[in-house]
Amino acid sequence: MSDEQSLGTVEVALSPLERFEEYLQSRGMRNTDQRRMLVEQVFSHHEHFDADTLIDKLPRKGQPGHVSRPTVYRTLNEFVDAGLLRKFELDGRAVYEHDYGYPQHDHLYCKQCQRLIEFQSAELIALRDAVARENSFRVTSHRLIITGICETCQRARRRTKRRVDLV
Amino acid sequence: MSDEQSLGTVEVALSPLERFEEYLQSRGMRNTDQRRMLVEQVFSHHEHFDADTLIDKLPRKGQPGHVSRPTVYRTLNEFVDAGLLRKFELDGRAVYEHDYGYPQHDHLYCKQCQRLIEFQSAELIALRDAVARENSFRVTSHRLIITGICETCQRARRRTKRRVDLV
DNA sequence: ATCATTGCAAAAGATTTGCAAGGTC
DNA sequence: GACCTTGCAAATCTTTTGCAATGAT
Lengths: 167, 167
What we know:
Two copies of one chain form a homodimer. The first copy, chain A, has a three-stranded mixed β-sheet with strand order 4-3-5. A two-stranded antiparallel sheet of chain A has the order 1-2. The first copy, chain A, folds into two domains: 11-102, Orthogonal Bundle (Arc Repressor Mutant, subunit A), CATH 1.10.10.10; 103-167, Dna Ligase, domain 1. In chain A, a hairpin with a 5-residue loop joins strand 3 (106-110) and strand 4. By secondary structure, chain A is α+β, with helices and mostly antiparallel strands. Chain A starts with 15 loop residues before the first helix and ends with a helix. Chain A has helices at residues 16-26, 33-42, 51-57, 69-81, 122-134, 151-166; strands at 85-90, 93-98, 106-110, 116-119, 138-149. In chain A, helix 2 crosses helix 4. The model of chain A has no long low-confidence stretch (mean pLDDT 91). The first copy, chain A, has six helices and five strands. The radius of gyration of chain A is 19 Å and the shape is flat. At the A-B interface, helix 5 and strand 5 of A face helix 5 and strand 5 of B. The first copy, chain A, binds a DNA duplex (25 and 25 nucleotides) through helix 2 and helix 4.
């Protein structure tokens, strides 16, 4: 019953910004314009993104609200530490997704259009824990990525193939 | 059942070197000393490795059998194309493992000692295919990494903790 | 006032590439 | 001999870091 693009949210007491401010306070870190700007931008859409995509969405150098590249990287790491974001690697670069207030899930990755499709599976968690138990392994987390071709791209590909065959 | 370090091998007609030579021929590529050296080195041990580890095991610059860094990278990519190796990302760098003649498996990754422990799970494959079917997704491959602390490191940690507690 | 944070420029680490010289078919 | 491959140096890409100036508490 889960939609591909939105697996629903979990009840949370605080907004991401509030949660982050709490984190900053607890560590004696400061609540700056840049950090607020980035929380806002990052949590305004529920998509997977990388550092460059995020930087592209921010105001350019000189414009108000601009944040420098090093600060973006630094702050993304803070978001991960604070439990706001989860980070993983795809094709050699870091990809981020919402973690705070968002349920555990895994991904189908279309190597044609680079789209990530989310899915949830309780059986996967059970399987993971069973494997861990057999190996006396203490699980912290896991990451499953199923790579292939999504429905849309399969259709496009078939169409192209047919066209090519006819020529 | 399966040993952690060796999941057994699959019946294959050709040795990795023979298979690679076939691949080279079929593509009009050449059978060079460097390529032969690297096939030999890579398939002499069944361990996960990265480019640097491999380079460290090769003769140094000046010694016979030395292969330059760019050629190592180029050749590793060829091995992946040829189906000899599988490549994945771990902590931001590429890790390789035998693919040709070796059964499909997944990994437990100890973040303490960086060791990769292999396991096989038919249920995982079934689960993967079921999820793909539900999403009309055509699977090419998948990668599951379960991160945590291995048995050995758990023991070491407990010992350390106890020691610390006593001081 | 103190001390964290920012932005800049530069560094770092992993991997790739242009090109001339050398090797394979 | 044709042309693929190698090694070198340099480039690339992504991410990190040193440091002086700036800003938050």
